[in-house]
Design brief:
The protein is an alpha+beta fold. It has helices spanning 3-15, 25-36, 73-89, 99-106, 125-149, 156-170, and strands spanning 40-45, 54-59, 63-68, 114-119.
């Protein structure tokens, strides 16, 4: 598949998502989990595993999205949406985990139940492109909606000046 074909498929996928409003990561995961009939569990974690900042782990019962807890909320949103991109595109990955990662995760998930794990160092370039694109498209869509829904910030002195000008113009400029 070409990058342009992948772009079109990812754009169609995100356009078809029913993204809850108001948006937050928890409601998005709850909503997608209900649609897929598989819970998506968010796992904020100090990701002390090399360059890893996000990880999708699938078990027989649920999908777990691990993300760096020691970063900005915007970065966390991007990481989670990136991992959701992998999940929605059903990207494949190895079940092999490094010993550090396996030890850290077994506290949250029974290791024997792991069916699929995908971290930022285990997928190919096409999967990375798609997941990054999906994350960007989701965040862009949410940001646009929030901008439309946000009340305009009004500077009181500007509002007063506009009111005086409107009043003057409505009387033909006469005092």
């Amino acid at each position: 598949m070409t990058r342009e074909e992948a772009r079109r498929e990812c754009e169609a996928l995100v356009a078809g998502l029913d993204i809850p409003e108001p948006f937050n990561l928890e409601s998005l995961c709850q909503h997608l989990g209900a649609q897929r009939e598989r819970p998506i569990v968010l796992m904020p974690t100090a990701m002390a595993f090399g360059n890893l900042c996000g990880l999708w782990l699938a078990t027989a019962r649920a999908d777990y999205v691990f993300y760096e807890e020691n970063t900005s909320r915007l970065h966390q949103k991007h990481i989670v949406c990136h991992e959701i991109g992998h999940l929605l595109r059903q990207h494949s990955a190895s079940r092999t985990l490094g010993s550090d990662v396996a030890r850290a995760l077994t506290a949250a998930v029974e290791f024997g139940e792991v069916q699929r794990v995908l971290g930022r160092d285990t997928y190919n370039d096409n999967q990375e492109f798609e997941a990054e694109l999906i994350a960007t498209l989701i965040i862009r869509r949410v940001s646009r909606q929030q901008a439309v829904d946000a009340p305009a910030a009004v500077n009181p002195s500007a509002q007063s000046a506009v009111a005086r000008i409107a009043h003057s113009l409505s009387r033909g400029g006469k005092p």
